[in-house]
Predict the 3D structure of the following.
Amino acid sequence: MMTGDQYKASLDDGRHVYFEGSRIDDLPGHPILGVKVDSSAQGYDRFYKPEDGAVGDFMVVPRSAQDLRAQVELHETVDLLTHVTYASIMTLLTAADRIESELPENAARIRAYVEDVQRKDLRIVQCITDSKGDRSKKPGQQEDPDQYVHVVERRPDGIVIRGAKLHISAASASHELMTIPTKSMKPGEEDYAVACMVPVNSPGVKIVDTTYYPRHEDKRHYPISGSHHCPEGFVIFDNVFVPNERVFLDGQTKFAAVFAHSLGLWERLGGLSAMVADYDILVGFAQLIAEANGLERISHVREKISEMIINATLVRSSLEAAVENCHLTSDGVAFPNELYTNAGKYHGAATYSLMVRHLHDIGGGSIMTAPSVADLENEDVGYLIRKYMGTKQSVDGNYRTRLFHAIRDYTADSYGGWKAVTNIQAGGGLYAQRIVSRAHYDIDHAKKLALQIAHMDDYAETA
Ligand SMILES: Cc1cc2nc3c(=O)[nH]c(=O)nc-3n(C[C@H](O)[C@H](O)[C@H](O)COP(=O)(O)OP(=O)(O)OC[C@H]3O[C@@H](n4cnc5c(N)ncnc54)[C@H](O)[C@@H]3O)c2cc1C
């Protein structure tokens, strides 16, 4: 396994990373992108074991609901790169299981790759979302055929791919790009039915990073986003060669969606478990600021917080149901229940803005306008700010001001905006979760119950 320092050194591999107009040669040393590298390096140190052949505990493949629950709880505490590596490994193993009967060689390749990557302790990110061009048109109908990643050349020893995958979390800090189709493909779209593993430093790979990381010098004004962030990569594959042993799908359109569906499941489980924590934090902020404002007993404030509590509890219940009702693959790997995962992720994403609305409604305008920590410390005005930001003997102005900073940072500033969009889009938009929920819901059972209560059981056979 690698230590944090070895991981940092491994990023000096000739990769092409760009940020705000410049190519970045020293990622760990970069004042903004280096913050992400540091948090990933801490992830390496946390799981490091010196023995030969050791594998990090975050990689443990769950074999029961109990294992799955333990992994979900562990992953609530790991950095994003460590988490997406695990979700990628689980995606690959789930996909291998699903293609095994018809493509046994491809499934064996996937399993060999997973063993290799675990042994080398590399980090993987998920490259699924294509640039997609005109959304009303299929990959093969685009004016520019490169709008979906596709094979442009087949050689005896591998393939050459071209295209771009957008919004790829932590791409520049990783080693491996798990490049898979974003949706199902039809006969005629064989070149687009491609799944493969691409090293980040492959010739032709270019990553352009963006981030919400605050640019203020005094990070105390950003108590949450000032200490961690995760850049998203605009990943370009400009004629990239991929050797055969790294190609898991090439042309078998029937299986193109298997990878996306497998990823969707693990990604949404990750999204759902992150939301469970988020929702409790939002309830916590709402109660704290209500108390600091002296409004915790006012009925409309209590009602809003009760509604927030109910939503937090429903999101937590969906996660619990997804884990408890997990399924086992043919080789005994536990994967979460599709219906509870997708319905829970949908509910969490759809109600997030309501949670934030209640918090903003309860909190008041100081969420946006509370003076900075440095102003609180200013000799001329600091004591006056503390006086007027205080509400009563037990609530000092310093405490209440810092609470407002945290709420702004978490929900109403650059990071808050990122969170609002990410909750909806990451793991696929709301529409994607509606489709999967519908596909796994037992609608025949619902119809039967409706006919029974209407005393129309005899129509059950035909309905
Ligand atoms: C912060 C962040 C991190 C992310 N991380 C990753 C990552 O690590 N890896 C990764 O692969 N992706 C990642 N994503 C991408 C995410 O999965 C996509 O944003 C999402 O799937 C939507 O795709 P899109 O952005 O291209 O939007 P669009 O596809 O343009 O969707 C916009 C809207 O149009 C609708 N729509 C689009 N096409 C059609 C159609 N043909 N018919 C009907 N309705 C349609 C959608 O349902 C949606 O409502 C991330 C996104 C964000 C915001």
Q: What stands out?
A: The mean pLDDT is 95. Residues 126-129, 132, 135-136, 165, 167-169, 232, 421-422, 425-426, 428-429, 431 surround flavin-adenine dinucleotide (CB under 6 Å). The chain is about 50% helix and 15% strand. The chain has two domains: 4-255, 258-447.
